């Protein structure tokens, strides 16, 4: 099965690009838009500088529509990490926070550094049960986790998040969507999350310098609550912006970077995002079956559903260079080699990967 989307991307014939978990590719159309936009912006006759606010508002509107979040609850950022640190600073100081063991360093490290009382949950095939057990004993105020684990590819059951929110409506649930958004349909309003934050350079195929936050009304009201109550002391020139917006968007945002994110989302909509998801899910199901038959997957992945677009192939890091030499773009992570399949990949990529493993790896 060949990819109907591959023709939109510049991929050299000798390259098998399986490193979207590190950085996604930009489509030809998005790159062409960027080139023209950048040229127009630096034309002295251009009025694009005066359209900064409207450009960013348009990006928020597109994000809100794509992920079903009110646009007034969408905030832009240069990347996930900056936005996440701003969110942590705005949480009530006495919050008890539950984290996943060995989650993305940009999730766990700043949370610990912020001084919150915290506890970790073991990440294995029983992750959801582990969460319920720890929530019952630790009684956290906030649960923070990556929707897809960056090393193993383990994906939280999104229906579990919905049920967890139903059982614990006061629990704030914060998700890192960077390794998830762009791979599957996602309705923020119905998800159970109070916040989902993401960079756009991986599965959303939008390049660097852009990220965003989706917030629930409840969490938006809680963030920086003391400052919100005393908002009147701020200079009048800021009165057209909320405290939360000022904290997430404290300076100038790059309209080229966020315009690129918007263009990528528009193109996904033009292709039919649900159709791209159907295509990639079939591909990853086939990849999972082949890798499982070769006993190359972690037990935590083999023994559970759902499956993300990421696989950690259990082969020694010594074979990394051999894979690169064969044109396989991948990366050593954890106990194996991490690969990911996106819409520009197809069965020829999978077959090449399997052939190299079968013939070069002992």
Description:
This protein is of the alpha/beta class and 362 residues long. It contains 15 helices and 12 strands. It has helices spanning 28-41, 52-67, 80-90, 105-113, 127-138, 158-167, 188-191, 217-222, 225-229, 243-248, 255-271, 273-293, 299-302, 320-325, 347-360, and strands at 16-17, 74-77, 96-100, 117-121, 142-146, 172-176, 195-199, 211-215, 310-313, 328-329, 331-333, 336-340. The strands form 3 sheets. A 7-stranded mixed sheet has the order 2-8-7-6-5-3-4, sandwiched between helices. Strands 9-12-11 form a 3-stranded antiparallel sheet, covered by helices on one side. Helix 1 packs antiparallel against helix 11 (255-271), helix 2 packs parallel to helix 11 (255-271) and helix 3 runs parallel beside helix 4. The protein is globular. The model has no long low-confidence stretch (mean pLDDT 95).
């Amino acid at each position: 099965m060949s990819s109907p989307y591959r023709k939109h991307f510049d991929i050299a014939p000798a390259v098998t690009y399986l490193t979207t978990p590190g950085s996604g590719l930009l489509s030809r159309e998005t790159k062409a838009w960027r080139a023209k936009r950048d040229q127009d912006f630096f034309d002295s006759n251009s009025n694009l500088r005066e359209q900064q606010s409207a450009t960013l508002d348009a990006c928020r509107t597109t994000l809100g529509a794509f992920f079903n979040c009110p646009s007034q609850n969408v905030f832009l950022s240069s990347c996930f990490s900056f936005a996440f640190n701003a969110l942590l600073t705005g949480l009530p100081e006495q919050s008890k926070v539950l984290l996943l063991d060995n989650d993305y360093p940009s999730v766990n490290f700043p949370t610990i550094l912020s001084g919150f009382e915290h506890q970790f949950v073991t990440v294995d095939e029983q992750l959801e049960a582990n969460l319920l057990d720890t929530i019952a004993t630790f009684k956290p105020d906030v649960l923070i986790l990556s929707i897809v684990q960056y090393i193993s590819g383990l994906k939280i059951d999104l229906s579990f998040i919905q049920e967890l929110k139903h059982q614990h409506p006061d629990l704030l649930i914060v998700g890192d969507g960077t390794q998830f958004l762009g791979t599957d349909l996602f309705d923020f309003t119905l998800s159970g999350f109070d916040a989902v934050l993401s960079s756009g350079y991986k599965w959303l195929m939008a390049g660097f310098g852009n990220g965003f936050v989706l917030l629930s009304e409840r969490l938006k009201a809680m963030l920086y609550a003391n400052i919100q109550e005393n908002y009147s002391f701020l200079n009048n020139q800021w009165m057209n912006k909320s405290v939360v917006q000022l904290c997430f968007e404290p300076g100038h945002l790059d309209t080229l970077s966020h315009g690129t994110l918007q263009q990528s989302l528009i193109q996904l909509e033009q292709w039919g995002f649900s159709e791209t998801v159907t295509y990639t899910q079939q591909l990853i199901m086939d990849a999972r079956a082949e890798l499982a038959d070769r006993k190359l997957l972690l037990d935590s992945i083999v023994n559970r559903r759902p499956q993300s677009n990421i696989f950690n192939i259990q082969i020694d890091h010594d074979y990394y260079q051999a894979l690169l030499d064969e044109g396989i773009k991948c990366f050593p992570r954890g106990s194996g080699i991490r690969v990911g399949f996106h819409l520009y990949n197809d069965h020829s990529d999978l077959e090449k990967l399997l052939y190299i493993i079968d013939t070069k790896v002992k």
